[in-house]
Amino acid sequence: MAYIIDGKKLAAEIKQEVAQEVQGLMGKGIEPHLAVIIVGSDPASQVYVRNKHKACQEVGVRSSIIELSENTTQSVLLARIEELNTDKAVHGILVQSPLPKGLDEQEAFQSISPLKDVDCFHPENVGLLTQGRPRFLPCTPAGVVEILVRTGIEIPGKYIVIVGRSNIVGRPLANMLTQKSDRGNATVTICHTRTRGLSYYTKQADIVIAAAGSPGTIIGEMLNNNCVVVDVGVNRVEDPAAKSGFRLVGDVDFESAELVASHITPVPGGVGPMTIAMLLRNCVKAATSPVSPPWQGGD
Ligand code: GUN
After folding, report:
1. Residue 202 pLDDT greater than 70, yes or no
2. Same domain, 146 and 230
3. CA–CA separation, 189 vs 171, rounded Å?
């Protein structure tokens, strides 16, 4: 039976560390400030934004939520982002994804100042990460790595299979885990919807990271005995017994996987809280960095 990793507890530890750093910054007259833009009324996004706001308050990071209506135009969205880019009191900017149909998400992410890009979605920051000299670490991949490190699971030399190739999780995570570092040096395979014989790969893995966005992607019989399973999936499935009519499940069939794995993360309570903790870390990082890069002439 697997050890169930408590992501909430690990995130609480990190939040305490961040709260101390925030206190230090406040002593120097700096109040870290995150601005979150949410467009429209997607219920899942509203929950995510509320959770981020609450976490900011817990550690002393100022949080502003900018709510824009469903029919906001791209130019209004970009203008709001530009206002925040030039606002010296704002250190981190996050545009909650997904945006309503008709808005160009990539253009929005790219218009955020790379120095305030606490999601690490800007191409400049993705490039720096890829070269092994990150400005920010992307929140969910960083949360996964932090879970492994804080649980005492060695990464160097391991064979890690990531299922899912998204720009938010799979690809940056593979990049981080293959860097020459004591949090990297793993051998990584990215599998995806066109992979033939997924079990062939997962069966050999020391660590399986499921980030496919589909329930039941991984079941116990696809796993190697005593492997580590990290479930990044957050899927709503109908549940008439639940008050809301749905419940959250990951990409892993927990019941069968926990019989085979040595360690497993639950959903909810695994990677999710760690993602938010990493966002807070990035806000502190953004608040301590120079306002402009030297090649732009300083501020
Ligand atoms: N929507 C779901 N996850 C994320 C995230 O990590 N960042 C942003 N901006 N939107 C999201």
Report:
1. yes
2. yes
3. 10
